[in-house]
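Q: Here's a chain of 739 amino acids. Please give me its 3D structure as tokens.
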Amino acid sequence: MVFSYFVYFAIKSGQTKEINHKVNTVIESTDYWGDFSTVFNHNITEPLAILMLQIITIILVARLLGFLLNKIGQPTVIGEIVAGILLGPSFLGLYFPEYSSFLFPAESISNLNFLSQIGLILFMFVVGMELDIKVLTTKAHEALVISHASIIIPFAMGVGAAYYMYDYFAPAGINFLSFALFIGISMSITAFPVLARIVQERGINKTKLGSTVITCAAIDDITAWCGLAVVIAIVKAGSFVSSLYTIALAIIYLIFMIKVVQPFLQQIGNKYSNKEGLTKPIVAIFFITLLISSFLSEIIGIHALFGAFLAGVVMPININFRNIFIEKVEDLSSVLLLPLFFVYTGLRTQIGLLNEVSLWQVCFVIITIAVIGKFWGSAIASRFVGKNWKDSLTIGALMNTRGLMELVVLNIGFDLGVLTPSIFAMLVIMAVVTTFMTGPSLNFINYLYRKQTTDATVEKVNVNEIYNILISYGNPIKGKAMLKLAHSLVKNNLATTKVTTIHISPSNELNKYNLVEYEKDSILPIKKAASKLEMEIETVFKPALDIDKEIIETSTSTNYDLLLIGAGNSLFKGSLLGKILGVTTKILNPKNVLDTLKERKLNFDNHIFDEHTNNILKNVTIPVGIFIDRKFENANKVLLPIYNLSDSFLMVYIQKFISNSSSKITILDVNGLFVQYPELKQSFTLGNSSINIVSNYKKTEEFFNSFDLTLLNVESWKELIKEEETWIQHCQSILILKA
């Protein structure tokens, strides 16, 4: 208070000096709301405020459409590309011009361009690091033939198409060589990052086919980017002869990076290959290398993105180092900055320019040429080197993926003035279509060449002889607890039991370097726990785009008798904002919308189970156990509250605990059912001394805390949660079962 009075006194005293400084006296306005509105409108149209609003809008729309596209089996990048187009003049500018002009005023586009270019530089740096040059030397023969065929065939077809399009679509002042080369290179690009993610999601990354197609894409990437650098040099120089100077400088720069810079960086990488060693000064060296490389390639005349790509390639060839560094860079570039590039591309894509049937016919021809050249060029080359037709067509479908890499090339062509807005829009549509068709093409190929199930395969798995348990876990600590639970269920019958553990990681969070580390970290603790329990288990690690879908399909594709999952915590529980977001997410979820249309209602009980658990319960057809782990060790004492007749199926699991773990069972007859149905009581006890029936009990913490495990039916659990029964907080571990 003393200092507050001092401040007040200083201000009042200081105001008496204003007359000497000729301060104008401001007449106080009585229109307070008008004054506030004027200031607010000024603030919201400031460049920084507009940029922040743009970024917020772009990320929200990109993530939403990425989520929706994921639900139909498409990579996130497709949703982000579509988001960019929707926020551009093709949709937002066409149907909501006032909002579009407010959100994306012409003077703000340069800011978006600047940030998107930074994002692209970081992205190309990561793409370069994800390439494994060693693979190219060990598997070069097949991959070289396939990848070069997948470049030269569509490139030649693109140049041929340019001959017919030049008169109608080439910008004024652009020579045929520049136009033809850019059309050719745009036809021959493969999106290595998207392809790698799809290979992981399909579970073929460890197969010979997956290894071949990844190698092909890597060679394709290097060849295409070197070819693009030459094309840019020719376009900027104006003629092939003039471009030789630029190409010569580029070759000198390339040799310098590989022979001088790479050995130096390799020494640093070998010395500082862990998180503790990668201090800020060390990280600064690598970022400076990235920036200098991008700068040199830009001033040479082959574009800064090629320099970023090459900087990634020459980074230390150390799996641990690259994994750490990719994680440092990838989230910033892919989540925050790359969506800005998609929208920047969308703002330049004017699909409305294709306002004649003839223009759409040309667009269709471009898509056809791109598919024939890339898909069939790769497939026929694969068949030529000895692949069977299924593998050849799979390679063709994957190599036909263009994605973000295609947009990068198209934007370079647009910036150089080689592509007109109309041909740019057609090529963007081609990039979207060819990337979108990859998933359905692979599904169709698998359908055509599906293997018929033989009688021997059916006999191999016999439900009556083998009790199959599938344990799906995210956290290895929870996985070990569920393994102990499964052991308590089958300890004396291990010879006739098969336990499979599966860990599914989001494929869009993985790269080729952290994939091995993730697999090791998720499976090794489970194997050690199984060894300690003297259990033989089968472990599965799988990247997937939709984790819930993968668990559902895995549980139903094999004759499993029980699926064990951990109880997740709802993201939306515990706050007003969380509840609002939870309701909004349920409404926006396509599956919930479909359920609403079918059932005329929407269930908002997100506080009972999290979204992941609800989805599995709804779609899995086998018995499911939801395990709430509270430091579970054994099942010596088990509590079974009986609420209604539907709880009778739990007796199967009670008998398993008694037979395999000599468990002491306490049954709570909560609603007096055993008095009404003596035969029910008889079926539960069967004269077993291990079972004790209790009807009079007090809901005390000591009572419920005395049991190692509590069994509940799913429906009983839901009722207990709705009635806010606090005694469940006092229980040790809980197993909630659905028949």
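Q: Can you summarize the key feature?
A: The beta strands are 467-472, 497-506, 537-544, 562-566, 624-628, 637-642, 664-669, 691-694, 709-713, 733-738.
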